[in-house]
Specification:
Layout (H helix, E strand, L loop, with lengths): L1 H6 L1 H26 L3 H21 L3 H20 L6 H22 L8 H5 L7 H20 L1 H9 L1 H6 L4 H42 L3 H26 L3 H42 L1
Length: about 290
Amino acid sequence: MIRAIFQYSFMQNALAAALLASIVTGIIGTIAIEKKLISMSGGIAHASFGGIGLGYLAGFEPIWGGLAFAIGSSLLISKISKSKRVNADTMTGILWSFGMALGILFISLAPGYMPDMTSYLFGDILAVSSSAVVIMVFFTAAIAAVFVMFYAYLNAYLFDEEYALASGINTRALELMIYLMIPAGIIVLIKIVGVILTIALMTVPVSIAKLFFKSFGKVVVASMLISAVFSLLGLTASYYVNISSGVCIVVLASLVYLVIMLTRQRVQSRMHTNKQHKECQHQKTKD
């Protein structure tokens, strides 16, 4: 596969897309988990499919339609979350199903044969075009730049929102920034794992990183590295086995997470038992 990367432009695009998606996963995934916005992120990802379908119907780049729908859904959920009349989770569920249904409707109305939407639903890293890489570079750079510039404020806001507000930090502006960063990140991830599996790529690498690190910054960096490993392994599997990259990445990441969780619990249980045994022996020796 290494030779193929140097020979074929589509492999170079796939490698670049994998690394860019890993950066986004580390930043957006960590923020979404810390603020408990994973469910909302899944709703935004699925709602973006309506914009993708509109792009096919109207004849413009579907990813821009997806971005418009994702941002609109994110801002709507943000506004609804401040209202006591409508539950934000309820609105997320409505937008989740409405976006998918709208996307299918638009694609059905498009003239000609219905296009294959597998790459948008489940991702296809080998089908990422050079223009798509340029779009991913733009959004990844924007997300990374905002994250670096406002890192200290984000760290305080995610740790304790009330403390951040008392410290003079404009938490409302930070919240709005997060609700704009998430849809931008989702658009990057859709090209890798698709609309349906985006929430998994945002969740699993960060969850693995949090098993070993507590610091916000360390979790972000570790999530990037873990996501990069899974993305490259998914790229390899997709290249040799001809299976959707999104499926390969998510299945592998989920299995690794489950193995680590089970192994970690067993090791901790054994260590706890050994500690209790030693304490009992020590107590008997004293008596």
